[in-house]
Amino acid sequence: MNLSFFDQFTSPCLLGIPLILLSMLFPALLIPTLSNRWITNRLSTLQLWFFHLITKQLMIPLNKKGHKWALILTSLMMLLLTINLLGLLPYTFTPTTQLSMNMALAFPLWLATLLTGLRNQPSISLGHLLPEGTPTLLIPALILIETTSLLIRPLALGVRLTANLTAGHLLIQLISTATTALLPIMPTVSILTALILFLLTILEVAVAMIQAYVFVLLLSLYLQENV
């Protein structure tokens, strides 16, 4: 029983073909066809509005030098948002429940923001490790603490995304299993459990969108410190 709960974190296959490949083809249907006009239909208008909203929210805390990262951060936001939402569909797989993938996204981007700061403004970037006016006796301890908090940032990014999505998926499977098991025994309780499952699914959709936004927003805040 315990193993079956965690089987959802492995990619399901049909005739040897991973179904994640089929689900990843779905967003391609949302890509508008080539045209000589900027806006061709309501879907294109909605997409452009959504991209503009995301880019605006991410770029507000950054100066003009940080606006060079707009394409990277917006693309990362759309990637995480698409993966998280597609993972809620039946018979699909959520790659962002794997810590290895989240760390592969978090570590290089965090390192890029850090190296950008060390290259453009090394004194200010290193100055974050030691607040102004620190007593002399506390300088070694504070440098050690700030360095540890700096190095733990990519791990925190990856673990936060993995833990939130994994917990939500496990809760959905546990409650759905309870709903099915209680149906022949206590139908009334099963209906109430199904209602809880419906509300939890709505909550998980919100969590999938919020976690994608938080992941990219924290990266933009790290970038703000270094530009």
UniProtKB/TrEMBL annotation:
Protein location: Mitochondrion inner membrane
Reactions that this protein is recorded to catalyse: H(+)(in) = H(+)(out)
Coarse class of the protein's main subcellular location: mitochondrion
Pfam families, alphabetized: ATP-synt_A
GO CC, one annotated term: mitochondrial inner membrane
Residue spans crossing the bilayer: 12-34, 69-93, 99-117, 137-156, 162-183, 195-223
Top-rank taxon, per record: Eukaryota
Annotated PROSITE patterns: ATPASE_A (PS00449)
This protein's UniProt keywords: ATP synthesis, CF(0), Hydrogen ion transport, Ion transport, Membrane, Mitochondrion, Mitochondrion inner membrane, Transmembrane, Transmembrane helix, Transport
Bilayer topology annotation: Multi-pass membrane protein
Molecular function via GO: proton-transporting ATP synthase activity, rotational mechanism
SUPFAM superfamilies to which the protein is assigned, alphabetical: F1F0 ATP synthase subunit A
Record Gene3D superfamilies: ATP synthase, F0 complex, subunit A
Subunit structure: Component of the ATP synthase complex composed at least of ATP5F1A/subunit alpha, ATP5F1B/subunit beta, ATP5MC1/subunit c (homooctomer), MT-ATP6/subunit a, MT-ATP8/subunit 8, ATP5ME/subunit e, ATP5MF/subunit f, ATP5MG/subunit g, ATP5MK/subunit k, ATP5MJ/subunit j, ATP5F1C/subunit gamma, ATP5F1D/subunit delta, ATP5F1E/subunit epsilon, ATP5PF/subunit F6, ATP5PB/subunit b, ATP5PD/subunit d, ATP5PO/subunit OSCP.
Family note: Belongs to the ATPase A chain family.
Protein name: ATP synthase subunit a
Species of provenance: Cathartes burrovianus
Top-level taxonomy: Eukaryota, Metazoa, Chordata, Craniata, Vertebrata
